[in-house]
Amino acid sequence: MPTTEVVNLYGAAWSVYVRIVRLALEEKKVKYGLVEVDVFAETGVPQEHLTRHPFGRIPAFEHGEFELYETGAIVRYIDDAFPGCKLQPTDPRARAKVNQIVGILDSYAYRTLVWDVYVERVVLAREGRLADERKIAAALPRAAVCLSELNRLSDDREFLIGGDVTFADLYAAPMFACFMQAPEAVSLMEQHEKFVSWWKRFAVRDSMSRTIP
Length: 213
Prior knowledge:
The protein has about 210 residues and is of the alpha+beta class. It has two domains: about 5-80, Glutaredoxin (3-Layer(aba) Sandwich); about 90-210, Up-down Bundle (Glutathione S-transferase Yfyf (Class Pi), Chain A, domain 2). The chain is built from nine helices and four strands. The two termini are about 30 Å apart. The mean pLDDT is about 95.
């Protein structure tokens, strides 16, 4: 499989899920192009993007003639197709924990931490609009459960699981880059020292600074 073929990622730099893929590419040291796509354009999802992703979401991915969409599929392909560090543990239990954390982030944390807290509190304020305080209040107990479980499941090491970067870190970091901007994050996070330590270390990685929206 030729790894020298052109790699293009289609999406928006501000997107959490686009950033997850960009982090995987950066950690694997894969050269790629980011092609900006506005799926929230007034005229709707651009027609050419619907040929890449019929559901009109981001990201979409190309490696030469090979096309993919869905973040989970893309990052696993990147890990398997390109040389460099491995982003999935070989030990079955460690790999299962990575997949469990990714599942928690996908199913519970993303909507709660990013849309219900960060977007409401930070993005709307930036746009001069009022937050929906009821939505934030309802999200905080769910956020607390997410943080508690992520803290419990993570190892007390440099990365969330084991001694090397994995999908667990790559999924969590873009979500927390958003969530940590909300004032509500301070009191929720102070109870989870292990997770706070991880965030302080991971937030300053080269891959994070190269993918800042």
